């Protein structure tokens, strides 16, 4: 204990000496967040109730969801990345979209398995990110994965609507409704990710970076519309 | 950000050692702290130097080494990110140009010399292959759907695993054939004219014509489908052959080129037959149609309710 206190003392000294340049990453992961909210730079997350910590993170995820549905501020999703939203969306989609392949003959609806959807979403967003990094985009890897994952929200909403429609008796009209809903979700997701990530590319390469995103959401929308 | 962590760790270790002795070691600490800060700063500048500079600066350095098609040069920086960055050093205009001219053979104008030669890229080949995988899977399913919808019932099951088959076929074609061609050239001692990257690039772009073709294959008219196979394979195959023509020398030239064209044609015909023709056959025994005279009562009652109630 003595040693730990001492480390803190040293740290304080250094902190005084070198100002903001070193103090970024301490062992307390929530420190940055606390400072951004404008409170004084004390380690206030250590003695707060767990409920507050969880609620703050949940709120951050909720705010990001809102920004995807209403993509106006460009930098709002890029400030701090987290992968909670993508994880929730991806797991939900994979759960709904998975086909039943266990009975080989009749109830096999030819859909993907849980893991296949999961892999398509994660590996897909990683490949799209890697592509934009290789093209020379100035954005960090996880920021981009985070944005691509959060922008799945419109397609997830489309999936929920389609699932609700599928409960009714099917007809051609309802298929057209599902098609339109899926297309709107697809366009929305592509537009949102373009707003957030489009500027990170050098001029003349924007289309090259946007095309893989388009393809990514197109494939996922195809899975959504085909799920029946 | 993460680079400041090791220095912090070091300091912690140091503190545990030194605070056990006395408190007077504070002075030591400020020294170590200074060193740590230097580290942080230098690593920051390092990362800054890496990312924005490479697209521009790589244009002269390793790029020119690649020009000679030297395999030996690649090993120098093969594991670095910058090595792959220079393979993606293309602009939108360039990619569109390459795609267009890979579909239209121009006699007397070498596709390789005019469009590929300065900088072969992997952006086009990779994304053309991915696009082709999904257009074939999606439009194959669409063709199947149209066929099912013709029978008057809208209960239709899609086949996701067409993606897997299409991906296997396309990626193995786009990799194995260039490797094979390059191996043959190397074995015959003629690899100086075509580097492996150039072959890979040309092959990737030559698949681009199958993207629109695979969308058009949805139209279920048999002669049109075969016509598309012939036109697609001829157009992009002739660009391929004109590229490979000067590189392949000797008496077996015709055999090698015929094999290349044959493989290209075979790929197109295979896609068409497997993804756009077989579905009618599959769907008659996967989905028993009640209006069919043959099925028994058991098979017509079982399949219909199960998929929707499954979830």
Automatic annotation (TrEMBL), chain A:
Q: InterPro entries under this entry? A: Yip1/4-like, Yip1_dom
**Disordered: annotated segments:** 26-45
According to Swiss-Prot or TrEMBL, what is its membrane topology?
Multi-pass membrane protein
The cellular location(s) given in this protein's UniProt record come to: Golgi apparatus membrane; Membrane
Which Pfam families did the record assign?
Yip1
Recorded superkingdom: Eukaryota
List, for all copies, the residue spans of the domain called Yip1: 77-223
Transmembrane segments in this chain: where?
A: 147-166, 172-196, 208-225
Q: Which UniProt keywords apply?
A: Membrane, Transmembrane, Transmembrane helix
Residue ranges with Polar residues bias: 28-38
User: Which family, according to the similarity comment?
Assistant: Belongs to the YIP1 family.
Q: Which PANTHER family match?
A: GOLGI MEMBRANE PROTEIN YIP1, PROTEIN YIPF6
**Protein name listed in UniProt:** Protein YIPF
Naturally occurring in which organism (per UniProt): Periplaneta americana
Q: List the taxonomic lineage.
A: Eukaryota, Metazoa, Ecdysozoa, Arthropoda, Hexapoda
Give the gene symbol. Answer: YIPF6
UniProtKB/TrEMBL annotation, chain B:
* Protein name as catalogued: Protein YIPF
Predominant localisation class: Golgi
- Transmembrane helix as UniProt keyword: yes
Superkingdom of this protein's organism? Eukaryota
Q: Give the source species.
A: Periplaneta americana
Question: Where exactly are the transmembrane stretches of this chain?
Answer: 122-143, 163-185, 197-219, 225-248, 255-276
Q: Where is this region: Disordered?
A: 45-71, 292-311
Q: Where in the cell is it found?
A: Golgi apparatus membrane; Membrane
- Domain Yip1: residue ranges: 101-270
């Amino acid at each position: 204990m003595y040693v730990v206190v001492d480390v803190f003392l040293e740290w304080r000294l250094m902190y005084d000496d070198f100002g903001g340049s070193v103090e970024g990453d301490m062992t307390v992961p929530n420190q940055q967040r606390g400072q951004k909210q404008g409170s004084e730079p004390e380690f206030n997350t250590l003695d707060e109730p767990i409920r507050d910590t969880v609620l703050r993170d949940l709120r951050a995820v909720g705010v990001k969801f809102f920004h995807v549905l209403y993509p106006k501020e460009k930098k709002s999703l890029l400030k701090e990345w987290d992968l909670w939203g993508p994880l929730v969306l991806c797991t939900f989609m994979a759960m709904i979209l998975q086909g039943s392949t266990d009975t080989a003959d009749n109830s096999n609806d030819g859909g993907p398995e849980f893991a296949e959807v999961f892999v398509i979403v994660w590996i897909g967003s990683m490949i799209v990110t890697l592509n934009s990094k290789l093209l020379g985009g100035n954005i960090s890897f996880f920021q981009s994965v985070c944005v691509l994952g959060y922008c799945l929200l419109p397609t997830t909403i489309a999936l929920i609507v389609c699932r609700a429609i599928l409960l009714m008796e099917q007809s051609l009209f309802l298929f057209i409704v599902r098609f339109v809903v899926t297309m709107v979700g697809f366009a929305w997701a592509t537009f949102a990710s373009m707003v957030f990530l489009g500027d990170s590319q050098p001029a003349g390469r924007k289309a090259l970076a946007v095309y893989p995103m388009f393809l990514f959401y197109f494939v996922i929308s195809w899975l959504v519309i085909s799920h029946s | 950000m993460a680079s400041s962590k090791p220095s912090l760790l070091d300091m912690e270790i140091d503190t545990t050692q030194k605070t056990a002795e006395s408190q007077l070691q504070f002075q030591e600490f400020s020294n170590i702290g200074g060193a740590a800060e230097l580290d942080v700063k230098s690593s920051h500048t390092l990362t800054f130097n890496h990312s924005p500079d490479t697209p521009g600066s790589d244009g002269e350095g390793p790029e020119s080494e690649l020009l000679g098609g030297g395999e030996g040069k690649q090993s120098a920086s093969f594991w670095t990110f910058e090595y792959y960055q220079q393979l993606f050093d293309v602009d939108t205009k360039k990619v569109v140009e390459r795609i267009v001219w890979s579909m239209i053979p121009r006699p007397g104008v070498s596709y390789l010399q005019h469009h590929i030669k300065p900088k072969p890229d992997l952006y086009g080949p990779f994304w053309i292959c991915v696009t082709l995988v999904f257009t074939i899977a999606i439009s194959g399913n669409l063709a199947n759907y149209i066929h099912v919808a013709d029978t008057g019932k809208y209960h239709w099951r899609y086949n996701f695993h067409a993606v897997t088959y299409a991906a296997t076929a396309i990626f193995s074609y786009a990799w194995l054939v260039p490797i094979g061609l390059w191996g043959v050239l190397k074995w015959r001692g003629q690899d100086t004219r075509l580097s492996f990257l150039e072959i890979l690039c040309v092959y990737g772009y030559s698949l681009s014509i199958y993207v629109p073709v695979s969308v058009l294959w949805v139209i279920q008219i048999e002669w049109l489908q075969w016509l598309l196979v012939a036109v697609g394979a001829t157009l992009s195959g002739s660009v391929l052959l004109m590229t490979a023509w000067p590189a392949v020398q000797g008496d077996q030239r015709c055999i090698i080129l015929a094999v290349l064209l044959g493989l290209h044609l075979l790929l197109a015909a295979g896609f068409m037959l497997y993804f756009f023709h077989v579905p009618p056959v599959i769907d008659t025994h996967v989905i028993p149609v009640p209006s069919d005279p043959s099925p028994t009562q058991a098979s017509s009652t079982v399949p219909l309710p199960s998929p929707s109630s499954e979830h």
